[in-house]
Amino acid sequence: MGEPAEKKKTEFALIQLLPNLMTVGAICAGLSAIRFGVQGHYVLAVQLILLAAILDGLDGRLARALGSDSKMGAELDSLADFLNFGVAAPLVIYFWALQDMSSAGWISVLVYSVCCVVRLARFNVATKSEDENPEVPDGYFVGVPSPAGALLAMLPMFFSFAFDVETGLPRILICIHMIVIGLLMISHLPTWSPKAVRISRENVKYFLVACAFAGAAVLTYAWTTLVVLCVSYLGLVIWGLIKRPSG
Known about the structure:
The chain has 247 residues and is an all-alpha fold. The chain has ten helices and two strands; from the N terminus they run αααααβαααβαα.
């Protein structure tokens, strides 16, 4: 006699739990980044946030590929995003360069974190809504996504690690930089999304070579490559702001 149908619906293969395990791993990475930031191990802290960003980019796609995406997984992913990119990233920056300042450093952290949680809340509402945003073309996000925002906020750290300078920028400029990135996250500026990119069959070989080159650059000159990628992305954001139709 077979098992009841209701029981079968509540059972999952272990591989179907892998996306949620990756999200939990990203949460652990973010929390550990805060710990190492407090202890002054800034390179390791940043590396853990980068690991969390990689896991964040993979867990949702893996869940859809395995047919194991769920409302719980989506909520868990959103909470992980806020912890990793709205809390861990600005705190690591604060411990690295801003904790010896007056209240300006902490205010910039608060502004950035609030912008990040507002951006995630808006994204969750838009995802659950059936209505599309007519102001944003297909293949674009509304505002800078939180993982990209965290990487852009840590750009001064990448610059410092790449060129072996103490902070890379005056502390007040780091504060202003964080606030500007936070405002970009909650803006209605269309920002490029790689999800909509399609590669023709003829260009696949060139794309693979480019990916191999990028991977080699990251492995060989990690911080310099991250600086270049962040500056390039900022260029795309600025271009989108310039080309945005008025009215």
